Amino acid sequence: MRLFGSDRIAKLMDRMGLEEGEVIQHSMITKSIERAQKKVEENNFGTRKRLLEYDNVMNSQREVVYKRRRNALKGDRLELDILNLLYDVSENLIELGKSMEDVENLRMNAFTSLGIDYSISTQELKSKDASVLTQELYALAFDFYQKKNAQIATSALPVFKKVQEERGATVKDIMVPITDGIKQIGVVSNLEKTIQSEAKELIRSIEKNVTLAIIDQNWKEHLRDMDDLKQSVQNAVYEQKDPLLIYKFEAFELFKRFIGKLNEDMTSFLTRADLPKQDPAQVQQAQTQRAPEPKVQASKAEVGNTLNPSASLASAAAVAAGRPTPAPVAPRKVEKTYGRNDKVSVQYQDGSTKKDVKFKSVEQDIEQGRCVVIEN
């Protein structure tokens, strides 16, 4: 077996009879150590270089995701990103619809992803150019999104003004629940800025918080998928294939699916995001129709002991039937239990006794009633 590194040097030193700690002065030993050290460094460098190539794949994906996240945090380009997002989703839906030539499927996908009812005939889907249909669908989605945001601002602004009038000196930020009908996210918005901007600040806060939440959730799932992919491609060595090349190809396809799902989740939530609706009249009606609780008077004897529920039930049944309350049953005493190797003293029916014997030796006699355990 060929030895490398420290094992090879140690074997060589043992053959030459060198003791541990002895100064190495022979040139042959010195050159051998240099070659072994160089070989170890080359192997380590190759390993690090290989790992760096795997990391470069993830770094290119991180740049794309973190750029969108920074835009959401700063808010400067967030509105433009959302408009591009609506256009990209519209374009993907039109491409899918043209490939399948299914009008109903396109209509359902538009409602699921963009929240709009997109009416189009089969003839229009086939005859019109994809760019024209994309622009039409994007215009409908953008108009619906603007109207929905205006409705949220109209509904929320009176609430913010009321809070400012009542507690404006003590309240700085307000958390508003936003839901798409399935999930709910708490959005924090500045009270003063929201009122001054006619609730536009609230809309920006909704877009920011929804974008960050969905990016973080999908990115964590994507990282787990990438880790699984990195482990699975190592088996390509047995097929005489380069795992790194397969990893790069599969990672690119995986990232495309991740971006597509991310865009769909964001557009679906943003186009459906709204304030939770609750009818105050129904709540009031439910409260007014609530039957008053009956006042129950019970004596101490009727209540019974909570440690003996059967007695309490019997007492309640007797009171309901008009019979006298039954006497409470005393709890049964539990005799002391012994382990098989515990020392006990027993007395038999003829009066004889056995002291300090193991319980297992007289266990059968006790069970058959021939003797009883006595105190020492």
Please tell me about this protein's structure.
- This protein is mainly alpha-helical and 376 residues long.
- It has 13 helices and 5 strands.
- The strands form 2 sheets. Strands 4-3-5 form a 3-stranded antiparallel beta sheet. The chain has a two-stranded antiparallel sheet with strand order 1-2.
- Helix 1 (5-15) packs antiparallel against helix 2.
Secondary-structure element pattern, one letter each: HHHHHHEEHHHHHHEEHE
Helical proportion, percent range? 55-70%
Would you identify the CATH H-level superfamily of the largest domain? Helical scaffold and wing domains of SecA
Overall, the morphology is: extended
Q: What does this entry show, briefly?
A:
With 376 residues, this protein is mostly helical.
Which tags fit this structure?
single chain; 3 domains; 5 strands; 3-stranded antiparallel sheet; mainly alpha; 376 residues; 8% strand; two-stranded antiparallel sheet; Helical scaffold and wing domains of SecA
Layout of helices and strands:
Elements: H1 5-15, H2 27-74, H3 78-100, H4 103-114, H5 122-127, H6 130-167, E1 173-179, E2 184-190, H7 191-196, H8 200-232, H9 243-272, H10 280-288, H11 300-303, H12 309-321, E3 343-348, E4 353-358, H13 359-367, E5 371-374
Antiparallel strand pairs: 1-2, 3-4, 3-5
Helix pairs in contact: 1-2, 2-8, 2-9, 3-4, 3-6, 3-9, 8-9
